[in-house]
Amino acid sequence: MKFIRQVNAVVPIIFNDFPKSIRWMLGAITAAVTGYFIFLILSGAPFKIKMDQLFELLLVMTALLITGFLVGTFRAINQLKTRGTTAKSDMTAAENKIDVNKKILPYSKIELGNYESETIAVGILADILLEESIKPGTELFLNRVDAGEPYCPKCKNPMESWNAGAKAGFVQIGYKCINCRTKHGRNRDELIKDISGEIRRNYDNYWNRYVHQINRITNGRPGDYIVR
Ligand SMILES: [Zn+2]
Predict the structure, then answer these.
(1) Of 89 and 5, which is predicted with more confidence?
(2) I need a surface site. Which of 24, 137, 198, 208 has the fewest CB within 10 A?
(3) Does the pTM of the predicted model rise above 0.85?
């Protein structure tokens, strides 16, 4: 049944793309033959047509139908191809239009302050989401939280990754200051967990900072910008 439905959908498209000359010829032959039979019936004249003449006529009509069908299929496929290309270029144009009208933010994360302890200091970052109009739930917001580059709270030097030895596969176990040897025994994932805990405890405060920062960098019009 599905096949029949497909054929039903395709045949009219192909017939639409039959060359006009072939449609005219088919129409003319059908009209002539029908007219001749009607004339014979109405006038009561004897049938004079021979079987092989009728056969030749059928042969010509079949040839015309096959030619029309082939040309129609070819044209229909070409049209579908062209339509696909047009749709694609329309989409590219739409994308370009958005780029022209909107300003681009040069960064995708925003800093919400510092996370600081005795042994580490690091910027608290959050992914920018410009389409946001209401305050998201805490956990949803925490998915966007990230940490900047850690630095030493004592001497302000950048901290380096502190890794386990070869036996432990060099996994990161924390951060260390190569200047004053301050060590922080929490790796990057744990550091982000600690930051998340801090935000969870003071979510209202961090959310207000986030909104304030977004308004500051977009002059209060986040809708005019897109994130790079
Ligand atoms: Zn240090």
Answers:
(1) 5
(2) 137
(3) no
